[in-house]
Design a protein that fits this description.
about 90 residues; two-stranded antiparallel sheet; about 10% strand; mainly alpha; 2 helices
Length: about 90
């Protein structure tokens, strides 16, 4: 397995694509395609979630609570840290 030397560009492109979907309520449901049905993991405020269904349920729940409480979500990205991995 070789190290992909374009890892930084790939990682930053992924983050841009992810948040473009996340920030657009009409496209947000497409985030499910970023997660593996069984193998994806996410930790959200200390809660560990596994699989695309559980992750999307949590995202939708949290975003729904923000809307119910009349709050506006403001997301900022200060830094993107990308780590190299070997290609499979």
């Amino acid at each position: 397995m070789a190290l992909n030397l374009q890892y930084e560009a790939i990682g930053k492109s992924f983050v841009q694509q992810y948040y473009a979907l996340f920030d657009d309520p009409t496209q947000r449901s497409n985030l499910v395609n970023m997660y593996n049905v069984e193998l994806s993991f996410m930790t959200f405020e200390g809660v560990q979630l596994q699989g695309s269904v559980k992750i999307m349920e949590k995202l939708n729940l949290e975003l729904g609570l923000i809307q119910i409480n009349g709050k506006k979500m403001i997301r900022t990205s200060r830094r993107t840290v990308v780590r190299p991995a070997t290609d499979r």
